């Protein structure tokens, strides 16, 4: 089969070739410029670009000195990278249940999961909507815990006028192609803390530090740098960010209007005080609906869907290692079985939205 890429892709690749030819990649201005744009956008002191959202989480955890013997509370319903980053440090990810209305971590369950070993809470702003940060900050304050926001999907999302990613000690974004803003692969950590920022900057580049014209390696760091070429994409994307968000929000609103009132389908809810950016449009099917059949039907009509996310307690690695059961996180179990991502993208036409809604209705 011959795959034809849209012309636009060729043009962008050609533009990147110009960047390579210019010789600027070795001088390194693009990562710095991209970081400056993110900092200005969010009004935060530091933005440190790294090679992935997972690397961002890993470095954020290390900067807080989280290690073996510690526990970090994460939502059970999330991409596996959230928990894996905790595992990398030797600490234990403790899974908390979610609220089925928002798919975000349930603060009441965070309270239940706190032990003397808990060091941090890592809320995920699921699918582009903020977790309940007032409650989470209250709990963190009461128990003297750090907050690392997994804002992988939430670049530009807001909670009571504050950007996701800048409400805790550190915020981590993914720049993977399925995210709001992409550099093809990449991530970024934001923080207002001088010490954490300096350590992360060093650790992303093998732990190196420059002093008196020489380079020293004070830590055993990582190769977690974002490449200059990827940063070029980030700069171009940052200029479009608000427009991308507006288009996604408009498409989501139209789709929700067309799908409302179907008894077997729970639509994404926008919480009070939240600016949901709809990185993904995720619906929840009722218990009686067979998700595989629903997804196969849409596929037969050329409509691609994926499962909403993963209930991590039931993934073999975590199930075998920590012996979690569905009873520990019952809402996440339901979401893991019954959630579906419907297609939604900025260029979506009214005709495509109508067709999607019509096909979902006929599937149900
Ligand atoms: C909630 C969440 N956290 C972390 C990540 C990891 O990001 P990356 O794929 O850039 O490593 C993802 C990626 O999908 C994610 O959805």
Attached small molecules: pyridoxal-5'-phosphate
Low-confidence stretches: none
Helix content: 40-55%
Biggest pleated-sheet summary: 7 strands, mixed
Strand line-up across the major sheet: 1-10-9-6-5-2-4
Q: How many angstroms separate the termini?
A: 33 Å
Number of strands: 18
Number of domains: 2
CATH homologous superfamily of the largest domain - what is it? Type I PLP-dependent aspartate aminotransferase-like (Major domain)
CATH class descriptor name of the largest domain: Alpha Beta
Q: Determine the structural class based on helices, strands and strand pairing.
A: alpha+beta
CATH topology of the largest domain: Aspartate Aminotransferase, domain 2
Tally of separate helices:
12
Radius of gyration: 21 Å
Mean pLDDT: 94
* SSE pattern, N- to C-terminal: HHEHEEHEHEHEEEEEHEEHEEEHEEHHEH
Tell me, what's the shape? globular
User: Any guess at the CATH architecture of the largest domain?
Assistant: 3-Layer(aba) Sandwich
């Amino acid at each position: 089969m011959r795959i034809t890429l849209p012309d636009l892709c060729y043009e962008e690749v050609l533009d990147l070739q110009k960047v390579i030819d210019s010789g600027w990649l070795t001088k390194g201005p693009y990562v710095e410029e991209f970081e400056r744009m993110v900092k200005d956008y969010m009004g935060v002191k530091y933005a440190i670009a790294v090679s992935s959202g997972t690397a961002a989480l890993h470095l954020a955890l290390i900067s807080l000195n989280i290690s073996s013997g510690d526990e970090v509370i994460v939502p059970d319903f999330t991409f596996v990278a959230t928990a894996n980053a905790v595992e990398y440090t030797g600490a234990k990810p403790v899974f908390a249940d979610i609220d089925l209305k928002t798919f975000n971590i349930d603060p009441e369950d965070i309270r239940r999961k706190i032990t003397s070993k808990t060091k941090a809470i890592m809320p995920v702003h699921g699918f582009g909507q903020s977790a309940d940060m007032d409650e989470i900050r209250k709990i963190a304050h009461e128990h003297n815990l750090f907050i690392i926001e997994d804002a992988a999907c939430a670049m530009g999302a807001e909670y009571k006028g504050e950007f996701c990613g800048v409400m805790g000690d550190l915020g981590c974004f993914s720049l993977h192609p399925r995210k709001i803003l992409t550099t093809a692969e990449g991530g970024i950590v934001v923080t207002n803390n001088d010490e954490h920022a300096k350590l992360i900057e060093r650790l992303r580049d093998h732990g190196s530090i420059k002093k008196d014209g020489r380079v020293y390696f004070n830590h055993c760091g990582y190769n977690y740098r974002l490449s200059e070429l990827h940063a070029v994409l980030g700069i171009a994307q940052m200029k479009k960010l608000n427009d991308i968000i507006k288009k996604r929000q408009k498409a989501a609103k139209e789709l929700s209007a067309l799908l409302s009132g179907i008894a077997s389908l729970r639509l994404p809810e926008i919480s009070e005080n939240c600016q949901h950016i709809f990185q993904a449009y995720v619906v929840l099917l009722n218990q009686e609906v067979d998700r595989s059949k629903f997804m196969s039907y849409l596929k037969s009509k050329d409509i691609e869907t994926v499962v909403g996310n993963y209930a991590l307690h039931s993934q073999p690695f975590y199930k075998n290692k920590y012996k979690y059961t569905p009873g520990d996180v019952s809402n996440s179990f339901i979401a893991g079985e019954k959630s579906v991502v419907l297609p939604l993208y900025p260029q979506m036409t009214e005709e495509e939205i109508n067709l999607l809604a019509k096909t979902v209705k006929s599937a149900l």
